[in-house]
Amino acid sequence: MWKRRSMLEKSLLVLVGTLLFVVVVLGMLLNSADRRIQDARISIQDQPIDTLKSKAEQKAKLYYESCLDLNETIENLGAKPMLDLLVKIDGWNISKSNFSAAGCNLQKTLQIIQNEYCIGALFSYAVGEDDRNSSRHVIQIDQSGLTLPTCHPDRSERINSADEAILPE
């Protein structure tokens, strides 16, 4: 009994030691990879797009630069875009002192939010294929959630033209 227990303890110690070694080595590899990625990012950041060798680097740099606000448009506009949106959807009781709920139209507000910004305010709705009959369409209504918009005002036109280019007649 004692020998068996002693061997189990030794085996467990070897296993724990091996696992610790693996964790340390993986940590060192991850740090090394992080440093190499950081160095590559910095070198790509400093070079003009047309001097980058691969298309992947060029696309990554173009995407990175498109996310930057180089001319400080966001800072210059400040809260104006949000205030304009609030006026467009009949205001908000804390956004202006002379707010009146009598002039608000919930249906108009929901339509603007859904159709122009593709966000379901209280609920989301879409037109989809009927599960029982694929030649028919149904209106699908679902609870809204904290999601990113799934459409764009010209989305269907873009998707249809892409489908026509890919799908056979």
UniProtKB/TrEMBL annotation:
Ranges of residues in domain Peptidase M13 N-terminal: 40-150
GO molecular function: metalloendopeptidase activity
GO biological process, one term: proteolysis
Lineage: superkingdom: Eukaryota
Coiled coil segments of this chain: none
UniProt protein name: Peptidase family M13
Subcellular location(s) per record: Cell membrane
Origin organism lineage: Eukaryota, Metazoa, Ecdysozoa, Arthropoda, Hexapoda
Listed SUPFAM superfamilies: Metalloproteases ('zincins'), catalytic domain
